[in-house]
Design a protein that fits this description.
It contains seven helices and five strands. Strands 3-2-1-4-5 form a five-stranded mixed beta sheet. A hairpin with an 8-residue loop joins strand 1 and strand 2. Helix 2 packs across helix 5 and helix 3 packs across helix 4.
């Protein structure tokens, strides 16, 4: 495939992934957030979520499900998403919360935090426009698009889309923001707890990780509910 063909394919992919949001915009929804998580499966570290609102003219090529992208590409796209989005928020639940209320509920709690953070940034981003227009009013999200899950008690219209991180641009952007955020955290944890290869496995259950647990025991960020069978 030539470079031109590859770019054309990315342009077509971008247009396809913008359709779900475009349909909602056509129905009158203005601020639409894509929400995704990363880190439900690891043995250590937090589950991290992100909520991202993209402008309708967002045109960065290559945004996709974070699992399909190289680390280098994710880092590049992360910077472009953070710079180009209308607003974003990060939410997380640590190992203690995961052990206490289970990973699914911990993920949902983290998503609520990400949405709340996103709305704070949205309000700040719109405050100047409101001031110029002579009105001050809180800006809220109009719609939330999730990858597969639904959040009970959310006072925003929502839709759960199976494999949404590969189908909806804002959810894909959220998956990248969440992934890069969590990976950076796990690299930092690797410096503090060097026996588990967190810098490479990001807390997932690799052979090196299990070996570290066998030799050194668990560390303060391990999810004990995930390690019940370890002796």
């Amino acid at each position: 495939m030539t470079k031109e063909e590859r770019i054309q394919k990315q342009i077509e992919r971008l247009a396809e992934m913008k359709k779900p949001e475009a349909e909602l915009h056509a129905q009158g929804y203005r601020y639409i957030a894509g929400i995704d998580e990363v880190g439900r499966g690891p043995l250590a570290g937090p589950v991290v979520t992100a909520a991202v609102v993209l402008p309708e003219d967002f045109d960065v090529l290559g945004v996709d499900d974070s699992k399909k992208l190289s680390e280098k590409r994710r880092e590049e796209l992360y910077d472009k998403i953070i710079k180009g989005c209308v607003a974003y928020g990060i939410g997380m639940s640590d190992h203690k919360v995961i052990d206490e209320i289970n990973i699914l509920q911990a993920t949902k709690e983290a998503m609520k935090k990400a949405i709340a953070e996103c709305e704070i940034m949205l309000g700040q981003a719109c405050a100047e426009d409101d001031e110029q227009a002579g009105e001050i009013k809180p800006r809220r999200l109009d719609f939330a698009l999730f990858d597969a899950v639904k959040i009970e008690g959310l006072d925003v219209p929502q839709q759960a889309i199976i494999k949404g991180d590969a189908k909806v641009l804002a959810i894909a952007a959220a998956s990248i923001v969440a992934k890069v955020t969590r990976d950076r955290m796990m690299v930092e944890y690797a410096r503090e707890y060097p026996w588990y290869a967190f810098e490479s496995n990001k807390g997932y259950g690799t052979a090196a990780h299990y070996e570290g647990i066998r030799e050194h025991g668990t560390c303060p960020i391990h999810r004990m509910s995930f390690l019940k069978n370890m002796h």
